[in-house]
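Office hours follow-up: a student asked to see two folded examples consecutively, so here they are.
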Amino acid sequence: IFNLLLFQIQKRLLLLLLTGILGIWNVSSTEAEGAELKPVPSIKYAGVLPVYWQGEINPGLAREKSAIEGNFTKIVRDSKRFTFVDDSIVADNWSNVEGRKKLKDEYELDAFLNLNVTEQGDIAIFTVRLLGPALENFVSETDRLPLAWLAAVSDDDLMAKLRDLTYRVLNRYPIDVFVTSLQGRYLTFSAGKDQNVLEGDMLEFADFSIKSQHPVDATWLEFQQKPLGKAKIIESKSQSSIGLITSLTSENAIKVGSGARVENIASRRNFRNKPAAEEVFVAVANNSPLVTAPGQPPKSPAPVPGPPPAPAAQAGALKAEAEAIEV
């Protein structure tokens, strides 16, 4: 009877706890719906934080430590999603309030990117975060990788996994390019050829707002998008471009800070299906002029001519032919 009573009390407490959590979620959602939504901040300058290794590291994972640290920074920079502040400047200033203020005021830093690695049992948890200038959460993504897989995986496969994780975070940030200046119908943008914003491209601009956030860590979950208009790229440089407004949803709808998505930016292109590889033609046999390709039936090789006859043999053949003619 005592055990049954204890079970009923635990069950009721659990039910009350779940009800309370759902109530908090519903209140947060209702308040968000009723309040004015917070706009998604524009990010032009970002810093890469040193990789954070939480707790003890498995010997197998420790062997990959230097490669992971070096490649994470390279992967982030190769995305060319933002303009990156020098790593040494970031490393010297990010860990205290005064330093972060310096990064924001003097280097105009808008965000940080961070990789956190934690071991839990027989898995390693890789978490990549896009953080605000005060280290507040913007967006994050996590992969749980078995230690056995990490011990056997090739460097290329591990880096591909880390690249996919990092680019998933970058792709969750909805703004690829934004307006930095405006003069009449002409706009200057925060991205250019390095981000695959090319002359002739048509960009659709919108105001992006944060529709919902995680109730625990406040990471962004959903966005609201309000269309503003379109602009055509008429000149593209390395890190900037110029566009001409072609349509607006309302007068003066596009303004400084208005953002757009770029489908050909590296982080988004990373997840597209790769085109089928071109057929590679190879000789069906050594010294054969015939070739074949994967999926095609092999062709019979042409007969390879033998060596020319020796001079003595040639003389004998000519003599025999002459005797035949005389007869």
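And the second, which I mentioned at the end of office hours:
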Amino acid sequence: IIFKNKLRINYLFSLLIFLIYPYTTDMFFLPSLQEKYAFLLFLILLNMLNKNNLLNKKYYFTLFLISFAIPLVKLQGSIFFIFFIFYFLLKKDKEGIAVISGFIIGILLQGYVIFFQESHYYNVNSSAENIIDNIFQIQNIFFLFFIFLSLLLTIPEKNKETRYLIFGISGSGLALIFLYINWETYGYLMSFYAFFIALLIPYSIQQILQILNVKIIFRLITPILLIASLLSLYLFFIPRIERWSDLNDAYDTLDNVLLDQEVYYCGSEGALTFNNLNNSKNEVIHMSNFSEIKTKDFFFINDDMQCTYFENALIGNCVIKEEIRSTFGRVKINKYSC
């Protein structure tokens, strides 16, 4: 409601864009995907700041506590610190100080756990090759385009609060991209972009229509988005259901068949899940680049939604010696010889 009113966005546009975005469906499949809980706490905090609350110690402590919790729920929650910096610059009140203080302490604690407690969750890869490969992925280019378009459209914006909200949303979005390009940009990690594009794209549409002042375009947008949502259901939602079925086949193979070579997978969290979800007879090893593999013969878990870049390298350098098929062929365990 806050964003709907302050950014003057059409709620139906926002909802349809949220559902059209391909990676949104991953949040439905993964109840443990904590990014959505970080965003929920962010909205609760923002809602509290926009209500006429009694300004007492309990209220300030609650603001501090929620702010402290957001980065601890998930590392990506730290990006909302950028949003509240702009919010504080707009309001300049004691509530903003409580929020920023909570974020700072939460981020410092999260950083200590990740970087000094031998955490294997966030494996930084700041090589120029990795950053360039990641930033030029179509998802990041798409997200960056609407971030900068929204910022450009704030130039004729007369409402100061609206401008600062867009600055905050865009700044947090850029922080998220920075985080991902130094980490990994695969699969469900992209689902967090959905929250941002569901705000930035409707705002951009509204601003452009206001500038053009052509009402017939506005009437066409809703049916276009409805058609696009049906196409997204067919092109992205159904394939994800097929992929999850194939993942179950892969789990069964790893649990019941002792493979005679090392098993690799391209996703760090995916490798952890393969190893920890069931009593697997095989250890799945995370490999982010083909050049890291030193053995001649090995198994690789092919995943058509996450490991395309890796599989392209395999096709050019190796031959398939054995293929363990799955129901839909979206996730397969292949034995390679290079």
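Two things to take away from it. The two ends are 56 Å apart (CA to CA). The mean pLDDT is 86.
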